[in-house]
Amino acid sequence: MDIYLPIAELSVNAPLLVALGALVGFISGLFGIGGGFLMTPVLVFLGIPPAVAVASMSNHVAASSMSSVAAYGRRGGVDFRMGGVLAAGGAAGSVAGVEIFRWLRLLGQADLAVALSYLIFLGIIGGLMLSESVGAIVRRRRGAPSPRPRDRRPPWLYGLPLKLKFPRSRLYISVIPPVALGVFVGLLSAIMGVGGGFILVPAMIYVLRMPAAVVVGTSLFQIIITTAITGVLQAGRNQTVDIVLATLLLVGGVIGAQLGARASSRFRAEELRAVLAFIVLLVGLRMGLGLLVRPHEAFVLMSGAGG
Amino acid sequence: MITTTLPPPAISAALTETQVRVNSGFRGTRIVLYGAIFDPGARASDVVVIVRGPEQPIRIARKAKVGPLWVNSRPVVFQGAPGFYIAASNRPLDEIAGFGVLRRMGAGVDHLPINAPAEQRIETRYGVRDMVVSSLGADYLDWRRAVVRLKEKSGLYKVDEHGVRFVDTGLFRAEIALPAEAPIGQYQAQIVLFQAGQPVSERLRTLSVEKVGAERSLYLWAHRGPWSYGLAAMAFALAAGWGASSAFRRD
Q1: Inter-chain CB proximity B215 and A6 less than 8 Å
Q2: Could you tell me the maximum CA-CA distance found in chain A, to the nearest angstrom?
Q3: Closest-CA residue of chain A to B237
Q4: Closest-approach residue (CA) in chain A for B235
């Protein structure tokens, strides 16, 4: 059954998109991630214009984060104050990101920016995750104790002004690092069509040193706010949000996410992380490969002159 | 040649459909055109049907190697290119008429009036400075061919050498395939009768491709009220996410 997407202006196979949403939803529920980094490349691969894919993903990521944040909220797993500070930075980042993306699109360099961001960020994050999780698996096999986490927080985190208390995270730190982190993630969400959880979560654990229990919930809370702003800006400035596309993905996505979340308890955390690291690396390399290989067709048509 | 006792030859044609409605199930369509030739002299006749979609400027870039990476050059804008183009005929165009005639009529993708100004023009367009609007360099033909090749690949440009079929003496039929990616707007079908390599009679028919129903409303809303559309789309997405979480909570 094909369905015509009114903004992308092409017809797609609806069951295929729902199934794709379910698969990515399953993976995101399994690993506790947003899944935008997986979905956007697949959509582009299916022939959806990159600008539409990136913009519509904001709506999809906002909706799927919304569907999982409630569970964390009930468990007290959301630090709303920290989330708000991150989101303030995220809002600024997404405003700038949407403008940068618009400018790149007019220059014809949007594809390059998207591919390079995927190659660099997914490559780094995937590589770090893989070495960390493989190390953990090897240690467990040998029966060696896991190394004591370094408890010493980076001193620069405390030397900065504008300190604020974050009771739920048991932190008293300057707002500058979380705001800067928010700006960075907001930029990525506009350019890569991702929520940014794959950057936020490690940064909150290793840089801000937030307790693990509030990390995922808080990152989801910040992702909802940032992607909501990004989505509205993409629609307002670029007219590239296809709500039919976002809805199709969402239908499969919420079901897949619930199934994935249930399945996740059957696996060990470090094994899950190792598999996720592989997926992250693979997607990053696949996106970057196009930049390194001689193109089959030297010319490329850019979508509509104005929009 | 034409004897004064006979009336001049004439062509007549009609589209079976003059309005293509793009709705949620739209996957492209086929438009059938019927026509007749009135020629008491019964001279050898050829029919060429040219369908042109609304004009759309084309932005095209060429990939070039910069360091280890393949990146897009600055996009070049071609003016005057139709968003959809098909030239259907009963035999290859170059057998029907000569180069000059075909060029004047813009018949065939090689003769498409894709205009490139004589010299390179750099303008500020869409808020971007230093955009190459068109350059007529040594490799201009490569660019032009690339435009046609890429459009042909997506089914938007086509030359169909046997797209017009004579079903009976003086009666012909043509079928035009309109892909789902075909642009929205007014199309013009030009039906030309050729005799001895010259166009002798011509008819114009118009065709409109428009979105209808929910697709139309969504498209218009997204373009005319982008901010309210964006807010509503996001509110809908958030509500759907919240609804899903409460639905699964009860399970």
Answers
A1: yes
A2: 61
A3: A63
A4: A228
Nearest Cβ partner for A299 among B22, B62, B237: B62
Q: Is residue A302 domain-resident?
A: no
SS (H, E, C) chain A: CEEEECCCCEEEEHHHHHHHHHHHHHHHHHHCCCCHHHHHHHHHHCCCCHHHHHHHHHHHHHHHHHHHHHHHHHCCCCCHHHHHHHHHHHHHHHHHHHHHHHHHHHHCCHHHHHHHHHHHHHHHHHHHHHHHHHHHHHHHHHCCCCCCCCCCCCCHHHHCCCEEEEHHHCEEEECHHHHHHHHHHHHHHHHHCCCCHHHHHHHHHHCCCCCHHHHHHHHHHHHHHHHHHHHHHHHHHHCCCCHHHHHHHHHHHHHHHHHHHHHHHHCCHHHHHHHHHHHHHHHHHHHHHHHHCCCCCCEEEECCCCC
Chain A residue with Cα closest to B222: A239
Overall fold of domain B10-211 = Immunoglobulin-like (2.60.40)
The closest of A187, A188, A185, A210 to A200, measured between CA atoms, is: A185
Considering only the beta carbons, identify the residue of A2, A3, A108 that sits closest to B74. Answer: A108
Q: Read off φ and ψ for residue B82, nearest 5 degrees.
A: -75, 150
Q: Where are the domains of chain B?
A: 10-211, 213-251
Is A304 part of a structural domain of the chain? no
pLDDT digits (tens, 9 = 90+) for B156-188: 898 898 889 999 888 999 998 888 888 888 999
Identify whether A297 is part of a domain. no
User: In which band, very low, low, confident or very high, does the pLDDT at B139 lie, cut at 50, 70 and 90?
Assistant: low
The pLDDT tens digits for A235-245 are: 988 888 999 99
Q: Which residues contact A229 (CB under 8 A, 6 or more apart)?
A: A90, A91, A94, A95, A186
Task: List the domain range (segments joined by +) for residue A36.
Answer: 2-141+161-292
- Taking the Cβ of residue B80 and every Cβ of chain A, the question of whether any pair is shorter than 8 Å is answered with no
* Cβ distance of B25 and A300 shorter than 8 Å: no
Mark yes or no for CB contact A299/B127 under 8 Å.
no
Nearest CA among A297, A26, A221, A268 for reference residue B238: A221
B171 vs A: CB within 8 A: no
- pLDDT-derived band at A307, boundaries 50, 70, 90: very low
Q: How far is A110 from chain B (nearest CA, A)?
A: 9
ipTM given for this complex? 0.81
> Domain for residue A156, yes or no?
no
> Rounded to 5, what percent of chain B is helix, strand, coil?
25, 40, 30
Establish if B28 touches chain A: CB-CB under 8 angstroms. Answer: yes
Q: For residue B179, what is the nearest residue in chain A, using CA coordinates?
A: A10
